[in-house]
Write a structure and sequence with these properties.
Dihydrolipoamide Transferase; OB fold (Dihydrolipoamide Acetyltransferase, E2P); about 475 residues; Chloramphenicol Acetyltransferase; alpha+beta
């Protein structure tokens, strides 16, 4: 005898009201065990893997991939043994595991652009080649019995109450929302979007193919056992004529605004029109910083970490914050108070496959230089793998965005709300420089500091920018001032 149980979309943290179903890991008829990953969902901040709270057989998937559903909506039905089955799912545990690891992509690594939640990508590798980084798997504790890492679920059974949500867009005749264009004549179009069973591809690759409108069934896989890789999909997107028949008349594509990108759009819009931004620029000679980074790489304390100029930028900003705490604060409109944070959760803006995120290093001000290097490397590796958890993205107090990785000298970054400041770090390049009255060639970069003028006056913003620049020009000042 079995009983049917429905698993409802839980609140995985921070007042989640809805999420997108990205990829189902199981199908009707599959056997599942407790804590087995069954689905990837995308919230406003990150992609999260949900484990099964039941052991049994999947009866049906109640929500298709690509659809947005409210918290509390049944998403899967499981037939469980009748004897001894609890009335509710397995109890809450430590927290959701971040999203499935995507295959490494060819080309530049995801980094941040010039704006706060709208800031662009940052890669702690800076101008240097990236070395080995720890992955977020290292942060997931093993289970006592088996030593294997397991995902756990948080927030299940949240009390549902009235919430105010935006009016939803009208559904398409098939009941689902609009999706990326699929090439005419593709298997997905011919089968109503159904995925051919014989196609071998990982979930992130399938997601990329859907986003780019590529029919996986039309591709020849170059991976193990003929599986389709991210490079196969990207090549098909770059050379569409070789992958699918031409589509006469197709001149536009509509991409649904969901998940991380929707959250980012709302955040940067609110920031731009709420906080009065001021941006100041400072160009400096960083020959000494580049030399210091080279020397750090030879020290045993940094073995395997590949320190970069961004590490010293982060350290210089932390020292400047200690000297000028007001730069690390927020504006509380309701209380009409300025909240000065006496701790620093240092955000590093990073662009991922699903949009811009700003994970942060907790209590960064209390870390020594090797520990800070380790934290930055882990933060970036986790973001690059698409595994940043909601907790990694919450509670930031100030942000750095590295626009230099794009070959950009400077930008006017948008504040990450509700933070009071964001520092953009431009590319390091050889440039003519006047030193002691002589024209010489130096390593030069430009710093851009945007700040909320309600909190930070021009003299404070200028002092912080000037001191960060001075420490990068002469890293010994970090010891004197820190």
């Amino acid at each position: 005898m079995t009983q049917r149980r429905e698993f409802r979309l839980p609140d995985v943290g921070e007042g989640l009201t809805e999420a997108d179903i990205v990829t189902w890991r199981v199908q009707p008829g599959d056997k599942v065990t407790i804590n087995q990953i069954i689905v990837d969902i995308e919230t406003a901040k990150a992609v999260v893997e949900l484990p099964s709270p039941y052991e049994g057989v999947v009866a049906s998937l109640l929500v298709p991939e690509g659809q947005t559903v409210d918290v509390g909506t049944p998403i899967i039905a499981v037939d469980v043994p009748a004897d001894g089955e609890p009335d509710s799912p397995a109890g809450p545990a430590a927290g959701p595991e971040p999203a499935a690891e995507p295959e490494p992509a060819a080309g530049p690594e995801p980094v941040a652009g010039p704006a706060g939640p709208g800031a662009g990508p940052v890669d702690p590798a800076g101008i240097a080649a990236a070395g080995p980084h720890p992955t977020s798997e290292d942060l997931i504790p093993p289970t006592p019995a088996t030593g294997e890492r397991q995902a756990v679920l948080v927030g299940y059974g949240v009390k549902l109450g009235p919430t105010t949500r935006r009016q939803r867009k009208a559904a398409t005749p098939g009941g689902s929302r609009s999706a990326p264009v699929v090439p005419a004549g593709s298997g997905a179009a011919a089968n109503g979007g159904a995925r051919p069973a014989h196609v071998l591809a990982k979930p992130p690759v399938r997601k990329l193919a859907r986003d780019l409108g590529i029919d996986l069934a039309a591709l020849a896989g170059s991976g193990p056992a003929g599986s389709i890789t991210r490079d196969d999909v990207q090549r098909a997107a770059d050379h569409p004529a070789a992958a699918a028949p031409a589509q006469p008349g197709l001149r536009e594509e509509r991409i649904p605004i969901r998940g991380v990108r929707k959250h980012t759009a709302a955040a940067v819009s609110a920031s731009a029109f709420t906080a009065p931004h001021v941006t100041e620029f400072l160009t400096i000679d960083v020959d000494a910083t580049v030399e210091t980074v080279r020397r750090l790489r030879d020290l045993p304390e940094f073995e395997g970490l590949r320190p970069s100029p961004l590490l010293l930028v982060a350290k210089a900003l932390l020292v400047a914050i200690r000297r000028h705490p007001m730069i690390n604060s927020t504006w509380d409109e309701d209380a009409q108070e300025i909240v000065v944070k006496h701790y620093v959760n240092l955000g590093i803006a990073a662009t991922t496959e699903r949009g811009l995120i700003v994970p942060n290093v907790k209590d960064a001000g209390g870390l020594d230089l090797p520990a800070l290097a380790q934290a930055l490397a882990g933060l970036t590796a986790t973001a690059r793998a698409g595994k940043s958890a909601p907790a990694d993205l919450a509670g930031g107090t100030i942000t750095i965005t590295n626009v230099g990785v794009f070959g950009v000298d400077a930008g006017t970054p948008i504040l990450t709300p509700p933070e009071a400041a964001i520092l953009a770090f431009g590319q390091i390049k050889d440039a003519p420089w006047v030193s002691d009255g002589q024209l010489v060639v130096r390593k030069v970069t430009t710093l851009s500091l945007s700040f909320d003028h309600r909190i930070v006056d021009g003299d404070l913003g200028s002092a912080v920018l000037r001191e960060v620049g001075a420490m990068l020009h002469d890293p010994a000042l970090m010891l004197a001032w820190g």
